[in-house]
Amino acid sequence: MHRILLLAGFIAGTACAAQAQDAPPTEPVDWKARLEADVTAFHAAIMDSHPGPVDPLNPAFRPRAAAGLKQALERAKTVHTPGGWWWALRAYQASFDDGHVQLYGIGDGAKLNSTWPGFLTVWTGADQVVTARQEGRTDTPPMGAKLISCDGTKAGLLAEQRVGAFRGRWFLESQRVTYGDLLFVNTDNPYLKPLKTCRFATEAGTKTYRLTWAQLSNEDLGKYLKLTRPARDYRFGLRETEGTLWLSTPGFNGNTQSDDYRELTALIVALKADPARLNRVGRVVLDLRGNGGGSSQWGYEIARQIWGGEWTAAHEARGADAVDWRPSEANIATIAAFVADQKANSGSVEAIQWGERALAGMKAARDKGEVYWHDANEGEASQGSAGPQAPLFKGRVFVLTDTSCGSACLDAVDLWKALGAVQVGRETSADTLYMEVRDQTLPSGMAGIGVPMKVYRGRPRGNNEPQRPAHVFEGDMSNDAALLTWIKGL
Length: 490
Description:
Number of strands: 20
Helix content: 25-40%
GO biological process, one term: proteolysis
Shape: globular
CATH architecture of one domain: Roll
CATH superfamily of one domain: PDZ domain
Number of helices: 13
Keywords: Signal
CATH topology of one domain: Pdz3 Domain
GO molecular function: serine-type peptidase activity
Strand content: 15-25%
Radius of gyration: 24 Å
Largest sheet: 6 strands, mixed
Distance between the termini: 32 Å
């Protein structure tokens, strides 16, 4: 049972993927026509290739997509700026509440500018807290102040309306943690009215602040966002330390030309070259920090090296009962290109066989005029068949996650926990039952989209359900030494 996501992971910017470009268009742009063309093409791709529009188990999908399109086309009537174009597209994408329905900027066609009131807040799990502020300002809340409300709207609803509406999945902790620091940034979004007054809880008591909005350069925006989003330099690696084998995999890209692919291949080779290392340690840490997804194949490859191939096959989690593929021409062409890439670049035999089977099945379904190719084989799972009586590694295995974990990273957590690993760290992101993303450029050439091609049937982990750790780490998730000490004490 192998699921190979064709994109490296989720594509996400800081304030906006189309932001921070060097030059605006040299000729006047009809942003109304551009938005109409792009959102219509976006919607058409969803209708043509996404499994949702024909999914009998999701009757709300079509009305939701239609409502999102209607809103975007209504907004197009008054669009005259690149910000209006971008944020209308972003709202349409967000309306699906699906991390695999993606939107990202391309090239230097749009330049967006930001304003702010001199401070930023982040979501701490309970509150929006001030964690960055402009030097020398006396009219902004102090560091650590907790937001209560703005213009009569409570903090939680405010973030949902002003950030969640353009990012989607605001019910997930990972989304609020990732994008909560954009609450007090407006990057040329004409659909947000400037906030006037906000109430904060400070050490000196509750205080109301009148906000003064000012321009914020891209350079300064990046500087302040770094204060709210500390740098995380996660790298691939395999090391033995203090009785622990620590395997770091901050990505699962399945593209044979990617850095992830080369790094992961080298890690698998290193594990195979020294199988005795598992006898030298008492615990293994499978570190998924920074991993946004890619190819589920890597999760299986790593499992085989840690637990053994037979144990993995005999105890792996049931990923799904089956998979339904949408056999559109664009989806078929994507799988064909994947197979060709794997063959041309010495990809794995398993990946090639998987792609060829999917390609043949989708073509057959297309030729019959069927809305799905039903792949029962991809849903096959072990039912406790004969296998070894013990795993290859008999010590404790921990899977370390953070809020970035999504897509194939979640598949790895599903598998490794079923094999006996204990999840630690932070709650993950989540994904819907719609998977396997393909790319498409919109008519403007200024943005691209990601469209899921298949849907899981009977997956035990629910739709948009995160993985929650058995042990939550409250400290700095980038501190390797602190994490190791903490894990050793579990």
